[in-house]
Design brief:
The protein is mainly α. It folds into two domains: 101 residues, DNA polymerase, domain 1 (Orthogonal Bundle); 176 residues, Intergrase catalytic core (hpI Integrase, Chain A), CATH 1.10.443. The chain is 50% helix and 4% strand. It has a three-stranded antiparallel β-sheet. A hairpin with a 5-residue loop joins strand 2 and strand 3. Helix 1 runs antiparallel to helix 2, helix 2 packs across helix 4 and helix 6 crosses helix 10. The longest helix is centred in the first third of the chain and has 20 residues. The N and C termini lie far apart (91 Å).
Length: 315
């Protein structure tokens, strides 16, 4: 039997931090997986074996590594992604100082890259209508896919939130769904008339009793477990569904599930919703995150400015 490889002090510290995230902070499995991957990547890149040896030079080398990194599709990391990796490293260093009382490099000295203003991709009325009506609702698969698209646009849910939905989460009487978002925070999202109709149409055609709301085709059900958890659509499958119907609808901007979330937010703001309410419906912790949508709605603000500004000023 091969001998187990001994962990370096850096790798051991990362393992302790991941345990702390799960046991003390209660972070979601997705967050834990993300942090584990990124910190292990840092350990694999790093020329040092101990967290105490992280210094300015190591940080500079790591930033250079992030600048040069390319994924399997030969794509460079976005500035936002690089900054997220630096944020993960800062959180790790902060844990070592606060929880383990180690003398390590100050996390506040790990400076992020200067980021460009975040661009928001949205679908406007014409493209959105074509996308939502693209599925063939004469088939069960088409009914399911239409329900997925309508639910995204009606609620502004994140992909991970929609994937985890179960039948029992729906309340057609109140037209509400309670979802667990980031940091395990529960919030209520709302179903439009169109989304309710699409969901009822889809569920009425389902002959199974599986718990997950959105599942794979009937042909796969022979290998399913009793509650149908193995039948639940994966995040990748739902991403592919959105891309499939975008192609059918002739939309060239390559929308994703998050595009529908953006479209939900901008639709609310364009129709007069206040920023705080949109923040609540999106599940944003900070209002500054929601403010990325204000520049998208600026044509409406410009119209209001022209209509109401300076009316009492004499020529």
């Amino acid at each position: 039997m091969p001998k187990a490889t001994k962990l370096t002090p850096l790798e051991d510290a990362i393992d302790r931090y991941i345990l702390y995230m799960e046991s003390e902070l209660g972070k979601s499995p997705l967050t834990v997986k993300n942090y584990t991957h990124q910190l292990n990547d840092f350990a694999g890149f790093s020329p040092i074996s101990s967290p105490k040896k992280i210094d300015k030079q190591v940080i500079r080398q790591y930033k250079q590594y992030l600048h040069r990194f390319k994924d399997k599709n030969d794509q460079e990391l976005t500035t936002r992604t690089k900054n997220h990796r630096l944020t993960v490293l800062r959180a790790f260093l902060r844990y070592l100082i606060q929880e383990e009382e180690l003398d390590v490099y100050p996390p506040d000295r790990v400076q992020r890259f200067k980021d460009d203003p975040r661009q928001v991709k949205v679908l406007y009325a014409e493209d959105l209508e074509r996308l939502l009506s693209a599925p063939d609702t004469e088939t069960l698969r088409g009914k399911r896919d239409r329900a997925i698209l309508d639910t995204f646009f009606s609620t502004g849910m994140r992909l991970s939130e929609l994937v985890s939905l179960n039948r029992k989460d729906l309340n057609f009487n109140t037209r509400e769904i309670s979802v667990r978002g980031k940091r395990r925070k529960i919030r209520v999202v709302f179903l439009s008339d169109l989304a309710v109709e699409s969901l009822k149409c889809y569920l009425s055609e389902r002959e199974d009793s599986f718990g997950p709301l959105f599942v794979r085709g009937v042909k796969d059900s022979l290998n399913a477990d009793l509650n149908g958890e193995k039948m639940r659509l994966s995040p990748r499958a739902i991403q592919n569904i959105v891309k499939k119907y975008a192609l059918i609808a002739g939309i060239v901007s390559d929308p994703s599930p998050h595009t529908l979330r953006h479209s939900f937010a901008t639709d609310l703001l364009r129709n007069g919703a206040d920023l705080r309410s949109v923040q609540e419906m999106l599940g944003h912790q900070d209002l500054s995150t929601t403010q990325i949508y204000t520049h998208v709605t600026s044509p409406q603000l410009k119209k209001i400015h022209k209509q109401f500004h300076g009316k009492n000023v004499e020529d």
